[in-house]
Specification:
Number of helices: 14
Radius of gyration: 26 Å
Order of helices and strands: HHHEHHHHHEHEEEEHEHHHH
Largest sheet: 5 strands, parallel
Strand order of the largest sheet: 1-2-3-7-6
Structural class: alpha/beta
Helix content: 40-55%
Length: 388
C-alpha cells in the first residue's frame, strides 16, 4: 500500500502535538466542604472520626459544656435585666452557645478577640467581669473593661468595622515577630458590608493571622440569608480573596471547636487568614426591641430548638461517662450562683461622674477638651453651691 505524503506527516512523531497539561486549579485548598463539618449527630451520638478534624480532648469538651451552661444562664439573666430596666437593650445569643464558647476556647489567653454587640456570652466565657461586659448595654461607658489588659476589643455596634481593626492589629503583631492570632466574630449581615471585604482582603494580601468567624444565624435583624447572598454558603466568599474557608454545623460544639482549632493553627503558623462559617440560629429576637414573629414562624424556631447545642454535647459526654447527674447539677448550681451575683450587682445604681466624659478621648487632652471639661466642672460646682 502506498502512503501519501499527507498521511506520512500525520504519522510522524515529530508532527504530533504535545499532550495538553492539566491547568492547576486556583481554588484548590481554598473551598470549604460541600456540607458543614459535623462530628456529632443532633442526638449526641458520635459520627465516624475524621483525620482532618480530630475529636477534641474530652476534658476540653467538658469545660466547653460548663461554660455553655453558665453562658446560657447569663444570657437569660441579662434578658431579664432589660425587662427590669437595668439594661437599655440586650442582643441575646441563646442557641449560639457552641459558637460563643468555641471561639474563646480555640484561642490562647494572649490572642485577641474582636466581638460584635452580640458576643456578651463569649466575653464572659473568656473570664471578663459580666458587669463590665454589660456596661455598654447599660449605657455607662462605651466599654467597661480594659481592652489591652483583656486582649479583647470593645464590643462593636457598627457592622463589620472590627474586621478592619483585627486585620491591622494582627498584621502589626506579626510584623513585630509575635505569633498572636486575632479572632473576629461577625454575623451573616456583616458579610454584606464593605468593611468585611476590605478587612479580609487586607489580611489575605499581607497574610495577617486572623480568623474570621461568621455566625450565620439566618437573619440580619429581619433580613433572611436569601436576601444577603446568592453564594452556596458564606464560606465560599473566602476563595475570592485567596484564603481557605470552611463551613461547620454551628450547633455541634465538638465540630465548632475542632474547626476553629485548625483555623487558629493555620493563622498562627504564618499562613494567613482563615474564614469559618458556622450554621446556627438565634432562638430569641434580634434584641428585646425586636418582634421576630413578623419575619419568622414558630415552626422554624421549634425545628432549631430540637438541635440544641447544649443537649447535644451533654448527651455525648454522658455517653463517654464524662458527665453524670451529680456533675450536671453542680454545673447548674454554678450557673445559678453566677446569675444571682450578677443580678445583685446590677441592682445597685452606679456612681457616675460627669467629668469622666472627658477621659480616654485622647491620650493627651487637647486644649479645647480641657476648656470644655473646666466649663462642666464650673457648672457642677455652681450647682453644688446652690444645693447647699
Amino acid at each position: 500500500m502506498t502512503t501519501t505524503p499527507q498521511a506520512a506527516r500525520r504519522a510522524s512523531p515529530r508532527s504530533r502535538r504535545p499532550a495538553t497539561r492539566t491547568a492547576p486549579n486556583p481554588a484548590a485548598g481554598l473551598l470549604p466542604e460541600a456540607e458543614p463539618v459535623r462530628l456529632l449527630n443532633p442526638d449526641g451520638t458520635l459520627l465516624p472520626s475524621r483525620a482532618d478534624y480530630p475529636e477534641p480532648p474530652v476534658e476540653a469538651l467538658r469545660e466547653m459544656y460548663r461554660r455553655m451552661v453558665v453562658g446560657r444562664r447569663f444570657d437569660a439573666q441579662a434578658t431579664a435585666l432589660t425587662k427590669q430596666g437595668r439594661l437599655a437593650v440586650y442582643p441575646s445569643s441563646r442557641g449560639q452557645e457552641a459558637c460563643q464558647v468555641g471561639g474563646v476556647l480555640a484561642l490562647r489567653d494572649d490572642d485577641w478577640v474582636f466581638p460584635t454587640y452580640r458576643e456578651s456570652m463569649a466575653l464572659t466565657a473568656r473570664g471578663i467581669d459580666p458587669v463590665e461586659v454589660l456596661t455598654l448595654l447599660r449605657g455607662d461607658w462605651h466599654c467597661g473593661y480594659d481592652p489591652a489588659a483583656r486582649r479583647t476589643a470593645p464590643q462593636c455596634t457598627p457592622l463589620a468595622t472590627q474586621c478592619v481593626h483585627a486585620a491591622g492589629l494582627a498584621y502589626g503583631e506579626s510584623y513585630q515577630g509575635r505569633d498572636t492570632v486575632a479572632l473576629v466574630y461577625i454575623g451573616d449581615g456583616a458579610t454584606s458590608e464593605g468593611d468585611f471585604h476590605e478587612g479580609v482582603n487586607f489580611a489575605a494580601v499581607f497574610k495577617a493571622p486572623v480568623v474570621y468567624f461568621v455566625q450565620n444565624n439566618r437573619y440580619a435583624i429581619s433580613v433572611p440569608l436569601s436576601r444577603q447572598t446568592a453564594a452556596p454558603s458564606l464560606a465560599y466568599k473566602g476563595v475570592g480573596y485567596g484564603i481557605p474557608s470552611e463551613q461547620v454545623d454551628g450547633n455541634d460544639p465538638m465540630a465548632v471547636l475542632a474547626v476553629l482549632t485548625r483555623a487558629v493553627a493555620h493563622a498562627r503558623a504564618g499562613k494567613g487568614p482563615f474564614l469559618v462559617e458556622a450554621h446556627t440560629y438565634r432562638m430569641e429576637p434580634h434584641t428585646n426591641a425586636d418582634d421576630a414573629s413578623r419575619y419568622r414562624d414558630a415552626d422554624e424556631v421549634e425545628a432549631w430548638r430540637e438541635r440544641d447545642p447544649l443537649t447535644r454535647l451533654e448527651t455525648y459526654l454522658r455517653g463517654r461517662e464524662a458527665l453524670d447527674d451529680a456533675a450536671v447539677a453542680d454545673i447548674a448550681e454554678q450557673a445559678e450562683t453566677y446569675a444571682a451575683q450578677l443580678r445583685d450587682r446590677m441592682n445597685s445604681q452606679p456612681t457616675v461622674d460627669p467629668l469622666s466624659l472627658f477621659e480616654h478621648v485622647y491620650a493627651e487632652p487637647t486644649a479645647q477638651l480641657v476648656e470644655q471639661r473646666e466649663q462642666v466642672r464650673a457648672e457642677l460646682d455652681a450647682a453644688a453651691e446652690g444645693d447647699a
